[in-house]
Design goal:
The relative contact order is 0.16. The longest helix has 14 residues. The protein has one domain: P-loop containing nucleotide triphosphate hydrolases (Rossmann fold), CATH 3.40.50. It contains 9 helices and 10 strands. The radius of gyration is 19 Å and the shape is globular.
């Protein structure tokens, strides 16, 4: 289990995360939701030890360090692959450094996305590069897989099919933490949703419980964020001069 306690992250002139605490057990698919600038990417980087913070992040009671970091993988739009290497080159590299690397999953996902195995990554489109980043994160053999906006640059059909594949290949011991704005699209695979706003954890929702209450995840998110349904009409009125904002 990953335990996060009283996590704070400060940048010059800005508090990016404020007193964030939650547990992440094994075997869950969890959405990390929030507006732009809410702190989602920063939270993931803190969990991985990629940036300094106040508070604690522990994995099975131990701080995250070089001794246990292989239990976590990270797929990020900033990309962590080597652009001058091919997909197959990456397989060889990952197999040498991660004993639990799954070549079967790697090749299966490479085929699913129709990615060329012998072309250098720098020749891939942005969408293809994002797909390959996800493949590496899912194939590493980690118990905790962190994906930060993994579907950028991918069309809706690719995303819809990938959700089905993703929910079908995850093992019971694998936990997926998925940062995304595509709430309606991913709600069908999520069991839980963590809601960040302004660097604070403002919601920890059980998706099955919401369904029992007859409420969608998007409705619950809007309710938590106090979404104003009239904001579009008010903005259009102000922009066309038909109505002034107070």
């Amino acid at each position: 289990m990953i335990e996060i306690r009283h996590l704070n992250k400060k940048y010059p002139g800005k508090l990016a995360l404020s007193d964030v605490s939650f547990d992440l057990p094994r075997g869950e698919i969890v959405g990390l939701l929030g507006e732009n600038g809410a702190g989602k990417t920063t939270l993931m980087k803190c969990m991985l030890g990629l940036t300094r913070f106040e508070g604690s992040v522990t994995l099975d009671g131990e701080p995250v360090s070089h001794r246990n970091i292989a239990a976590l993988s990270f797929g990020t739009g900033e990309h962590s692959f080597f652009p001058g290497l091919t997909a197959q080159d990456h397989r060889v590299f990952y197999e040498a450094h991660f004993p639990r690397f799954s070549a079967q999953r790697f090749h299966g996902l490479l085929d699913f996305f129709s990615l060329p195995p012998h072309r250098k990554l720098r020749t891939f489109s942005m969408g293809q590069q994002n797909q390959f980043e996800v493949i590496l994160a899912l194939s590493q053999g980690a118990d905790y897989i962190l994906l930060d906006e993994p579907f950028a640059g991918n069309d809706v059909f690719n995303r819809e099919d990938f959700y089905k594949v993703l929910s079908g290949i995850l093992e019971p011991h694998e936990t997926l933490l998925l940062s995304t704005h595509l709430i309606e699209e991913v709600s069908g695979i999520l069991g839980r949703a963590l809601l960040l706003r302004g660097g604070r954890l403002v919601g920890d929702l059980s998706v099955p419980q919401l369904e029992e209450e007859g409420k969608t995840l998007l409705e619950a998110v809007k309710e938590t964020y106090r979404y104003r349904a009239d904001r579009v009409g008010r903005a259009l009125g102000a922009l066309t001069g038909e109505e002034e904002l107070p």
